[in-house]
Amino acid sequence: MKTTLKITLAILLLIGFSSTGIAQKNKPNQKTNNKAKNKAAPVHKTSPVNRSKVQYKSAPKKVVTVRNIPNNAVKVKHNGQTIFYTNNKFYRQNAGRYIPAIPAKGFRIKTLPVGYTVIVHNNRNFYYQNGIYFIQSNKEYEVINPELGTIVSQLPADSEKVVIDGFTYFEYNNVLYEKIQMNGTRAYEVIGFIEN
Predict the structure, then answer these.
(1) The whole model's pTM is what?
(2) Which residues form the signal peptide (predicted)?
(3) What gap in Å lies between CA 106 and CA 134, rounded to an integer?
(4) How far out from the chain centre does Cα 139 lie?
(5) Span of 51-55, 91-95, 127-131 with lowest mean pLDDT
(6) What residues form DSSP beta bridges with 164?
(7) CB 127 within 8 A of CB 119
(8) Facing residues of 161 across strands?
(9) CB-CB contact of 91 with 98 (8 Å)
(10) For residue range 35-46, what is the model confidence (pLDDT) as tens digits?
């Protein structure tokens, strides 16, 4: 029995070494480049990025409209545009239908959307919900542009992956985000804006 075990072990070792040698012999010569690429690290973009430099990585999304919104929708006029707010969503009316809308900077509502998150950045409280940033202004909440360096834990489902100067970012409502790790969890940092 010991002899059979020794012979079997010897055969297995012989097969193992010979197959490794054959695999290495058939492997083409490859150079591995462990040098870091000379690509500048992305930086916060203090001036807006020209839209022509932005490459969207997904096909244009189809705009989904609705025929009716609830009767209790709040109607707010801002900059000559009427926005309807209901069930944590914003709409504008177009040709008898309602199109999802993102309220512009300066738009005000009396109560924050359900599910908002409080973000503290530069010792100021911001309120964030589904890609929209608010600050408290008197007894209302005003839509603002986020500050560079603001970090959020998630982006809206319809945010888009974009490439600018070879770097991949995410974009929502002309705000650029970089995916980062914060305390072992995925997060997104505001790094710039796309000009309209």
Answers:
(1) 0.73
(2) 1-23
(3) 9
(4) 31
(5) 51-55
(6) 167
(7) yes
(8) 170
(9) yes
(10) 333 344 455 566
Instruction: Pick the closest to residue 146 from 186, 182, 105, 112 (CA basis).
Output: 105
pLDDT of residue 7: 54
CA angle 24, 32, 19 (to 5 degrees): 10
Show the tokens assigned to 54.
């932005």
Task: Tell me the pLDDT tens digit for each residue of 132-167.
Answer: 999 999 999 999 999 999 999 999 988 999 999 999
What is the DSSP track for the chain? Answer: -HHHHHHHHHHHHHHHHHHHHHHHHHSPP-----SPP--PPP---SSPBPGGG-EESSPPPPPP-BS---TTPEEEEETTEEEEEETTEEEEEETTEEEE--PPTT-EESSPPTT-EEEEETTEEEEEETTEEEEEETTEEEEEPPPTT-EES---TT-EEEEETTEEEEEETTEEEEEEEETTEEEEEEEEEB--
pLDDT by residue (tens digit) across 108-137? 999 999 999 999 999 999 999 999 999 999
What is the C-alpha to C-alpha distance for residues 172 and 145, in angstroms, rounded to an integer?
12
Q: How far apart are CA 130 and CA 87, in angstroms?
A: 13
Cα distance between residue 127 and residue 134, in whole Å: 5
**Residues 55, 163: contact at Cβ < 8 Å?**
yes
